[in-house]
Amino acid sequence: MSIYGDYIKSVIRTVPDWPEQGVNFRDITPLLQNSSAFRKLIDSFVHRYQDMNLDAIASIDARGFIIGAPLAYELGCSFVPVRKKGKLPFKTISETYKLEYGHSEVELHSDAFHQDDRILLMDDLIATGGTMLAAANLIQRCGGHVVETATIIDLPELGGSQKIRDAGYSVFAVCSFTEDE
């Protein structure tokens, strides 16, 4: 957790029973609307990664873009979007992952990285970990090396962050929520 973790967590809104009964949705909109909180969020990532010599920030469609782009700017490295299927215009590679009910797919431009590029993989939230693992596989297939996976929120009770660690990746989250918070 970052030095601002408790503050960031306090700004995130929990919306009970959305999008369905029994789900506590973690809404980052208030965090983005609060300029001080948003700066502290980006600063949390900058302080963690400023000395890691990253080549690129790869961020997952779409909320990952919100944090990945300003972080890439601040760190002076490139920004690479990992998109939902059918959203990239050039030659792509894709990875399918399992959802609670069905499957989904993410894509990356086939020329997104050079061999052994050091990549930080970002999204807004880790739940079951499927999207993050699919994106990490894409990065490796393009020759990149995932230095760490990073997110604003971890929901550890859903098991995603542990799955990501079990796959050999480091996980950093600014804050985490349990189901009863």
UniProtKB/TrEMBL annotation:
The keyword Cytoplasm applies. GO terms for cellular component: cytoplasm. GO terms for biological process: adenine salvage; AMP salvage; purine ribonucleoside salvage. Its main location: cytoplasm. It is found in: Cytoplasm. Pfam families: Pribosyltran. InterPro entries: Ade_phspho_trans, PRTase-like, PRTase_dom, UPRTase/APRTase. It catalyses: AMP + diphosphate = 5-phospho-alpha-D-ribose 1-diphosphate + adenine. Keywords: Cytoplasm, Glycosyltransferase, Purine salvage, Transferase. GO terms for molecular function: adenine binding; adenine phosphoribosyltransferase activity; AMP binding. Pathway: Purine metabolism; AMP biosynthesis via salvage pathway; AMP from adenine: step 1/1. Signal peptide: none annotated. Residues 44-157 form the Phosphoribosyltransferase domain. Its EC number is 2.4.2.7. Belongs to the purine/pyrimidine phosphoribosyltransferase family. NCBIfam families: apt (TIGR01090), PRK02304.1-3 (NF002634), PRK02304.1-5 (NF002636). Homodimer. Catalyzes a salvage reaction resulting in the formation of AMP, that is energically less costly than de novo synthesis. This is Adenine phosphoribosyltransferase. It comes from Vreelandella subglaciescola. The lineage of its organism: Bacteria, Pseudomonadati, Pseudomonadota, Gammaproteobacteria, Oceanospirillales.
